[in-house]
Recover the amino acids of this structure.
C-alpha cells in the first residue's frame, strides 16, 4: 500500500513528506494505521547526526494507531488499538530470558540496520529501500512493525496520549518506577524538563517522592514543572558544582535520585554531585557517541554514590504501558498536559525545528489531519 511519510533523505538533510510504499506484513508483523506521533529529541538527534540512523529513513518512534492487517502467525486482531514500543524483543536471547526485554540483543543489533527484526525494511520508494527508524517510523499515515512492538490499549485512550506513552512517558516514568525504584519520601531531582524529564516529575509524584526538585535553563519549563508537581525549582547555575549546591539547598542536603534527561556531560556531573550518600544519578539522556563523563571518583566508594543507566526507563512495555494508562485514566498521571503543540504530518520538518529550538514540552503530529 501507499502512504504519506516524512522522509529524512540523509543525515543533516531535509525532511520531506512524500509517498512511500509499504510491503505487506511478514511473519510476526503488523500493519498499523497511525493516528498520532510524538516528536522526540531522538528524532532530531537522527536529523542532526548526534545519533545517526540509516537513510533515507522515515523518522518517528512514538506512535499509536489501529491494527489494519496482520502477517502470518500474529495473534493481534484487526481493529485493536495499540501504542507502539520502539523496543521489540525476541523473547529468546540472554537478556530477554532474564527478563530484560528492553535490552534485547537481537533488537538492539537489528535497530542499526534500519530494517525490522529480520534486518530488511518494509518501506520503499520508486523501487529503492527506505529504512525504518527504531522499527517504527511513525511520521507516516501507516507503518509495518514487529508484533512485539504493539501494545493493545483501551479504545478510550486518546491516540496522542497513547503515542507519548510509547517513548517519552515510559522513559521518564520508567526511570523513576523501574530503574530507580523510587519509594515514598525519597528525595528526587530531575535535570532537564522536556517531555522525558517532566514525565519523570509526574512519575516521582505518583509514587510519593518528596521533595521533587526540577532543574532546567528555561524559566518556562520550570514553571511547567511546578504545575506538574515539582516542589522546588533550580535554574541552571552555570556550572555543575554551583547547580548541585543549589539542588542540595533545595532538597535538605542532597537527593536519593538525580534523574538526568538532557544527555549533556555537565548536567550528568551536576546530577551526580547533587546526590546524598548512597544516592544515585540516573542517566537517561542520550550523549554523543564520543562523550566521556568525568566524575570525582573518591565520592563513589566513600559515600556510596552510584550511577544507574536507564534505557527506555527499564520498562516492560506490555506491563508498564498498561500501568501508566491505568493511572492516567484515574487522573493520577495527567499526561495530556505534556502536549503543547499539535501539527499535521506535512509540518513534520517544522515540528523538528520547534524541538531544535527547545520550545515544545511535546509536539504531536496529528496523522488524521494531513489532508487538511
Ligand atoms: Zn523518543
Ligand atoms: Zn531478545
Amino acid at each position: 500500500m501507499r502512504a504519506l511519510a516524512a522522509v529524512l533523505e540523509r543525515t543533516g538533510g531535509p525532511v520531506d513528506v512524500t509517498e512511500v510504499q509499504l510491503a505487506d506484513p511478514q511473519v510476526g508483523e503488523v500493519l498499523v494505521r497511525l493516528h498520532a506521533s510524538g516528536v522526540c529529541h531522538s528524532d532530531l538527534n537522527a536529523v542532526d547526526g548526534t545519533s545517526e540512523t540509516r537513510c533515507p529513513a522515515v523518522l518517528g518512534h512514538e506512535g499509536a494507531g489501529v491494527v489494519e492487517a496482520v502477517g502470518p502467525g500474529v495473534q493481534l486482531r484487526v481493529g485493536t488499538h495499540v501504542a507502539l514500543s520502539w523496543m521489540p524483543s525476541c523473547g529468546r536471547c540472554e537478556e530477554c530470558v532474564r527478563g530484560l526485554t528492553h535490552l534485547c540483543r537481537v533488537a538492539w543489533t537489528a535497530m542499526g540496520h534500519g530494517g525490522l527484526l529480520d534486518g530488511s525494511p518494509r518501506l520503499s520508494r520508486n523501487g529503492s529501500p527506505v529504512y525504518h527508524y527504531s522499527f517504527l517510523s511513525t511520521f507516516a499515515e501507516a507503518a509495518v512493525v514487529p508484533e512485539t512492538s504493539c501494545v493493545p490499549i483501551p479504545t478510550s485512550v486518546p491516540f496522542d496520549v497513547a503515542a507519548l506513552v510509547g517513548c517519552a512517558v515510559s522513559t521518564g516514568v520508567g526511570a523513576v518506577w523501574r530503574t530507580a525504584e523510587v519509594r515514598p519520601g525519597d528525595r528526587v531531582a530531575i535535570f532537564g524538563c522536556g517531555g522525558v524529564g517532566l514525565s519523570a516529575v509526574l512519575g516521582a509524584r505518583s509514587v510519593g517522592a518528596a521533595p521533587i526538585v526540577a532543574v532546567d535553563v528555561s524559566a518556562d519549563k520550570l514553571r511547567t514543572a511546578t504545575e506538574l508537581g515539582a516542589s522546588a525549582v533550580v535554574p541552571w547555575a552555570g556550572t555543575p558544582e554551583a547547580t548541585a549546591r543549589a539542588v542540595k539547598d533545595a532538597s535538605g542536603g542532597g537527593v536519593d535520585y538525580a534523574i538526568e534527561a538532557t544527555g549533556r556531560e555537565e548536567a550528568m556531573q551536576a546530577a551526580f554531585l547533587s546526590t546524598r550518600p548512597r544516592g544515585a544519578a540516573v542517566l537517561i539522556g542520550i550523549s554523543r557517541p564520543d562523550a566521556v563523563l568525568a566524575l570525582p571518583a573518591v565520592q563513589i566508594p566513600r559515600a556510596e554514590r552510584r550511577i544507574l543507566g536507564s534505557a527506555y526507563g527499564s520498562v516492560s512495555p506490555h506491563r508498564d504501558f498498561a500501568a501508566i494508562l491505568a493511572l492516567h485514566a484515574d487522573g493520577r498521571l495527567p499526561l495530556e498536559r505534556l502536549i503543547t503543540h499539535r501539527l499535521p504530518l506535512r509540518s513534520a520538518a517544522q515540528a523538528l525545528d520547534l524541538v531544535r529550538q527547545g520550545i515544545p514540552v511535546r509536539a504531536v503530529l496529528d496523522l488524521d489531519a494531513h489532508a487538511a
Residues 89-90, 92-93, 95-96, 104-106 surround zinc ion (ligand 2) (CB under 6 Å).
